[in-house]
Design brief:
Low-confidence stretches: 1-25, 419-468, 470-474, 480-488, 490-497, 601-608
Structural class: alpha+beta
Radius of gyration: 39 Å
Shape: elongated
Number of helices: 12
Largest sheet: 6 strands, mixed
């Protein structure tokens, strides 16, 4: 009974055992395949190293060969397969790793074996020979890089152009001349190095396009010239870097006709030769506008401009905001509008004393070849009869000289205002100056039914009034409290010390917030100077570079710290007027330096 019961089971076990015994793994081996053993100087040869059935290996390893640049290509390809024939299972695992060999000199070379290690064993390929010849490009291909316009100045915007000229190929036997699309298809895009032009080609490829070529006759021969452009907005003078650029292609030597899998008659490349070229660099000359003849109102503009200014409203009371719309239009077509700054109205003499102008840089919006800025100003007296002309200076690269243009004056009707203005829209510096001049405490806020601002005498008669009794009841308690505190010398001294100490301790925090919100170099400069003032415990918010260095010297700060601060402030000043970029990391480093140089314990009695 039992033998009959177990006989089918034993048969299945025997079958499974047979299958297991029949499964085997292919032999372990390492081999190499070479695309060609005939090579040319500076032309890459592709090599594939195949590692079969060697798990957890190290390598491949290969020694250096003088005259050959051997590079491992990124990535690797892994394949696994299982084959069953007549009940026998064979498993195979292969890892393919690519290499590129670039000969640097002509000659005959022996490429040594590639080696991999696994489980204490070494597996090697066979060495192979490379015969390297010089590939003369001759007149087959030309390449140049230039910038437009040329020369170019910091503050302009243009393009860098790679011009690639390829001699047009004609097969006299077939009577066929290749068109520009066919010639471009012979360029080895994966083997070429495009430098800064790579992003432009990737963009074209993503749109399923390629550079367009046009036929030109050069030295009596037909060439197809391809132009690849890269937008260029220089930030420093000198010769800009274009990266490593080398264009490689398989130039045709013979064509053939043949049928493809759809039995269509097609042209094929029967014979070719690799050629490559490194472009010559022409007209890559970036300059800085000269110092000589530079107007005081120039703030980095390069090009040729027109200036239009509009104001609204033009009938206002003293202190009411007037919005200026300033339009700068570039007629040269080369100005870098993104970095273009508005005229610095606050620094122009025509506005001094008659208008209050925020120091904050005016915001700008680019529209076509124009940039439009809006700026708010306020008349300080009813004697003002017009908004004076605004000056704007630029450097004209066509003439090599500076020029200054002026807008037309705008008639203005200003009514007197008999009540002080609480300017909640101006910058903090404007509010401090205005409030002090009007006898209003700094930090006054706008409240409904309270302080009446920007009203003419006729408007005042219609406004609600504050009686003497109401004023006395409202202001008596704080006045009494301030009188009590102010009458105590010890408390007055402690109040001043505590205020200075708080400013010093919070200086870095406030500066970090200001830097995070700052966009222009001017804003960053003001934030850094305000930090120094606060760190020194000064109540003065209008520190200049000279004020800062003088105050630090008076505190006994080292000359190294002062020199570092002056260097960063000069860089910010140059960025403000020259359009050069700012380095926030440098600003934060000098903040750390000053923070360490002015310790907290020395600030207890610092006031100014």
């Amino acid at each position: 009974m039992y033998p009959r019961l177990f006989s089918p089971f034993l048969a299945v076990l025997a079958l499974l055992a047979g299958l297991t015994l029949a499964t085997r793994v292919e032999a372990q081996a390492v081999s190499v395949q070479v695309s060609s053993q005939d090579a040319y100087v500076d032309e890459p040869v592709r090599v594939a190293v195949s590692i079969e059935n060697v798990p957890d290996f190290e390598g491949p390893f290969i020694g250096d060969v003088d005259g050959l640049d051997i590079r491992r290509l990124p990535g690797e390809q892994t394949m696994s397969s299982t084959q069953i024939i007549n009940g026998r299972t064979t498993r195979k695992s292969t890892v393919n790793i690519g290499y590129e060999i670039i000969p640097k000199r002509a000659g005959s070379y022996v490429v040594p074996a590639f080696t991999v290690r696994a489980g204490g064993e070494e597996y090697t390929t066979k060495p192979f020979r490379l015969e390297v010849k010089i590939s003369e490009v001759g007149d087959l291909m030309r390449a140049t890089v230039r910038c437009k316009p040329s020369p170019m100045y910091v503050g302009q915007a243009g393009v860098m152009v790679l011009e690639l000229a390829i001699k047009r190929y004609r097969d006299d036997r077939l009577g066929i001349t290749l068109d520009e699309g066919s010639m471009w298809s012979l360029i080895s895009d994966d083997l070429s190095d495009w430098g800064i032009f790579g992003s432009a080609l990737q963009k074209l490829a993503s749109e399923n396009r390629r550079p367009r070529g046009e036929v030109q006759v050069i030295d009596g021969s037909e060439y197809i010239v391809y132009s690849i452009e890269k937008p260029f907005d220089p930030i420093a003078s000198g010769t800009p870097s274009i990266g490593d650029v080398r264009v490689r292609m398989n130039y045709p030597l013979r064509l053939a006709r043949g049928n493809d899998i759809f039995f269509e008659n097609r042209l094929t490349l029967a014979e070719s030769r690799p050629v490559s070229i490194v472009p010559t660099v022409e007209s890559l000359d970036v300059r800085t506008p000269p110092d000589g003849g530079r107007p005081a109102t120039w703030n980095g503009a390069v090009g040729r401009f027109t200036l239009d200014v509009a104001a609204k409203p033009v009938d206002v009371a003293v202190g009411e905001p007037i919005t200026l719309t300033i339009r700068l239009t570039d007629t040269s077509g080369t100005a870098g509008l993104e970095g273009l700054l508005a005229p610095d109205i606050a620094a122009q003499r025509n506005f001094a004393g008659s208008f209050r102008v925020p120091r904050d840089a005016a915001a700008g919006v680019v529209e076509g070849r124009s940039k439009i800025f809006t700026q708010s100003i306020r008349a300080t007296t009813d004697a003002v009869r017009e908004i004076p002309s605004i000056e704007f200076s630029y450097f004209d690269p066509a003439t090599g000289e500076y020029a200054t243009i002026r807008s037309a004056a705008i008639l203005l009707q200003v009514r007197p205002s008999s009540i002080a203005t609480a300017n909640v829209e101006s910058s903090s510096e404007d509010k401090t100056r205005e409030s002090t001049a009007a006898g209003v405490p700094t930090g006054t806020t706008k409240v409904t039914g309270g302080l009446v601002a920007n009203m003419s005498p006729a408007d005042v008669t219609r406004a609600p009034t504050i009686t003497a009794r109401g004023a006395a009841l409202a202001f008596a308690p704080p006045i009494i409290a301030l009188g009590v505190l102010g009458g105590t010398p010890l408390l007055r001294s402690r109040f001043r010390r505590d205020g200075a100490g708080r400013r010093a301790k919070l200086a870095r925090t406030h500066c970090e917030r200001a830097l995070a919100a700052a966009v222009t170099a001017d804003e960053k400069e003001r934030a850094l100077l305000a930090f120094v003032a606060a760190r020194l415990g000064s109540a003065d918010t209008g520190f200049s570079r000279g004020d800062a260095t003088q105050a630090l010297r008076a505190r006994g700060t080292s000359e190294e710290t002062i020199a570092e601060l002056e260097r960063v402030l000069r860089l910010l000043e140059r960025a403000r007027y020259g359009g050069t970029p700012t380095d926030d990391a440098e600003i934060r480093r000098v903040i750390d330096t000053v923070n360490r140089a002015v310790p907290a314990h020395s600030m207890s009695g610092a006031t100014r």
